Here is the input.
Amino acid sequence: MDGTGHGAENLKALTALDAGLVGCRHCTRVAPLGATICTRCGGALESRDRTSMQRVWAWWLVGLLFFIPANLYPMLITQTVGRASEATIVGGVIELAQHGAYGVAGIVFFASIIIPVGKFIAIGYLALIVRKPHGHKPKSLLHLFEVVEWIGRWSMIDVFVVAILVALVQFNLLATINPGIAAVCFALSVVFTMLSALSFDSRRIWDQIETIADE
Amino acid sequence: MEAGDDLVCCPVCDALHRVGEVDDDTRVRCIRCNTVIAVGRPEAILRIVVLASTALILMTIVVFYPFLELRNGIFTSKASVFQTVMSFSEGVMAPLSIAVAFFVIVLPVARLMALLWALFPLSIGAKPLRGARTMLRWAEILKPWAMAEIFMVGVAVALIKLADLATLSMGPAFWSFAAIVFITALKDTQMSKHSIWTALDTAQRT
Here is the structure.
């Protein structure tokens, strides 16, 4: 507790549940097991969220469903002097790369393809592990969830880029940019996967890490 | 073990800790998952209040002044953050317009105001306002949904996409927005759930 402890070495700890207490995730106060409302901040208390997995899978599935049209339909519709061209997410990345902006192309590719796909895999993997843990190395699970939870929001970059382009490029006949249907699908997909990650009770992953470390 | 004031549970992994007085300029981390549990900074509340009010004032500039200006020969197009937000306002895209408005303006502002509501009285040594606890809880819940910093990266990407199409210049709102992103990040490093809630508890009791 001196601020130098590293999680990777201490996989076992006395949890609030072990001690017959329930901790508040909003304000970190502990209450006796069975309390439903935190006396300090008024938040809901539950030692281990029992319905969390259902919500995780429901949001995960909806997010995945919206991710498919998000990649098939155009994100941007550009009209320049009578010619209209459409660009999907991947198309936009290729276009950036052709302009020589490899760094930006990399950021957009990472934010709109790698992060969402990685997130679907990571949440699915964690949700399966929590149910049936065997043969996994605890260290590989340690901070996977935190990374997933933190990085998910950054997928919104592409939606904001579309919004900025649409607002700026309105030169009537010369050039106009309009949003495509994929922008909506992609934004929804990001929101749903964020909700999926937020429904996850990280304390259950740590329970499993402890169990696996015991084996 | 009894529930008491010094007993703290890690919000991420549920490990119990007994945290007493925290020394200045030290961080107490969870023994298991390394999450920061308490920060020993006596002026943390004051700093959060100052930074949050600065960000809130800059936000008014952001909404009302031009954000980016685009010139292509004789054509000029100016966009404020408000226009950017409204760019999806037609037809099926309208819900997206509302969502972008929430992520970029409404939620960041709501979060700053909730924080100030809860913590401003503490910084001047007054009694907390009614509903301070609820406000503080909501400030934390809203955290992942306030996406101002992501919007900034989006601006950078858009600038490069347009670089060969037209000349771009940044308006005052752009720099205010950049400052807000920086200030908010600075503010969040000062925050630790346990320390703030303990401060609110102490203020409520006296």
The beta strands of chain A are 21-23, 30-32, 76-80, 83-87, 175-179. Chain A touches chain B through 72 residues (CB under 8 Å).
